[in-house]
Design a protein that fits this description.
The protein has about 325 residues and is α+β, with helices and mostly antiparallel strands. It folds into two domains: about 55-155, 60s Ribosomal Protein L30, Chain: A, CATH 3.30.1330.10; about 170-325, Alpha-Beta Complex (Phosphoribosyl-aminoimidazole Synthetase, Chain A, domain 2). About 35% of the residues lie in helices and about 25% in strands. It is built from ten helices and 13 strands. It has helices at about 5-20, 75-90, 110-130, 175-185, 195-205, 210-220, 230-240, 255-260, 265-275, 285-295, and strands spanning about 35-40, 45-50, 50-60, 95-105, 130-140, 145-155, 170, 225, 245-250, 280-285, 300-305, 315, 325. The strands form two sheets. It has a seven-stranded mixed sheet with strand order 8-10-7-11-9-12-13. A hairpin with a 6-residue loop joins β1 (about 35-40) and β2. The relative contact order is 0.16.
């Protein structure tokens, strides 16, 4: 069997099982003195040390897989390489703290480009209170950036595995603009100046929803993750982890007016499947939603519900309530 036969998520499940089952336990703990609260398989791992809950996550972006130099300038690449990690910490209800950065660079990389990369990193680090404290650098045929990021929370971490039938499915902002920006650039399409700027910025400089994650954790919300691979795909992961299914009402999924202006026939599909929006997806009992929305920086938008059904199955419904094809195309690194 090959990696492509299992697919990305089958491989992840296999490795997660190996890691957990093969771990040596000493004194009842994986690491003496440190209580593991969230194991491998969520947006970030979490453990308790000296009374604080620490979080840790990592992510890699690779040239020609996650970005091209034509669509993502160096400074924006620096921003975006941290944004995905900060969003993972936000999805756990935490605050990001320290980053380690590993760079893979061709030897003919210009120093000016490297400086621009770090300018972008420092911009987002300064905005969210992150300190880069070290890293590594290797020769590589293509550019890649790996960031390992720590965070901290004083609350119970938000999880993917705690959704229950009857919960409302909520997103913290508009979706699809990043996909719209990428399509605009890859296909050289025309758009008004305002629309082009919005869509390109949405793709190149996504803003993690750290403040919303804090509010969710402080409000007693149990279940959340970030929208990095597309709403349908990420909700499917959450449902699979929770052993439930879900329904989405396509008409309720929020899209920016400028995305709708440029892609009137495709904007809903982009919102359902586009990815790299880095808004948060959370579930709550219906009676709790109004209270949570009053505290969020921007009220969340209810787009569906959690149901009892095949774990991981997400049904997309039209205006009449009939199920339609979502065109589900969530990112899988090893798909054919």
């Amino acid at each position: 069997m090959l990696i492509r036969d299992l697919g990305e998520f089958g491989v992840i499940d296999l490795l997660n099982r190996m890691v957990v089952e093969g771990r040596v336990i000493r004194d009842g703990l994986p690491c003496p003195g440190v209580k593991l609260l969230v194991d491998t398989g969520d947006d970030a791992a979490a453990w308790n040390a000296d009374g604080a809950t620490e979080l840790f996550t990592t992510d890699t972006v690779v040239e020609e897989i996650h970005f091209t130099r034509d669509t993502t300038p160096w400074q924006d690449l620096g921003w975006k390489s941290l944004a995905s990690n900060i969003s993972d910490i936000a999805a756990m209800g935490g605050l990001p703290t320290h980053a380690l950065v590993t760079l893979g660079l061709p030897p003919d990389t210009a120093i000016a480009d490297l400086e621009d990369l770090y300018r972008g990193m420092l911009e987002i680090c300064n905005q969210f209170g992150v300190s880069i404290v070290g890293g590594d650098m290797v020769r590589s045929p293509v550019v890649f950036v790996t960031v390992a990021l720590s965070g901290v929370t004083g609350n119970t971490p938000l999880l993917r595995s705690t959704a229950r039938p009857g919960d409302v499915v909520v997103v913290t902002g508009e979706l699809g603009s990043s996909a719209g920006g990428l399509k605009l650039m890859l296909e050289g399409l025309e758009a008004s100046g305002e629309a082009a700027e919005h869509l390109k910025n949405a793709h190149r400089r996504p803003v993690p929803d750290v403040a919303a994650g804090q509010v969710l954790a402080e409000s007693g919300v149990a279940t959340a993750m970030d929208v990095s691979d597309g709403l349908c795909d990420d909700l499917g992961k959450l449902c699979r982890a929770s052993g439930v299914a879900a329904e989405i009402e396509a008409i309720l999924v929020p899209v920016h007016p400028l995305l709708r202006e440029v892609f009137p026939g495709e904007c809903v599909g982009m919102a359902l499947n586009g990815g790299e929006d880095y808004k948060l997806l959370f579930t709550v009992p219906p009676a709790q939603l109004n209270e949570v929305n009053q505290r969020l920086p921007q009220p969340g938008v209810a787009v569906g519900r959690i149901t009892a059904g095949e774990p991981g199955r997400v049904a997309v419904l039209d205006r009449s309530g009939a199920e339609v094809s979502s065109g589900r195309q969530g990112w899988d690194h090893f798909a054919s």
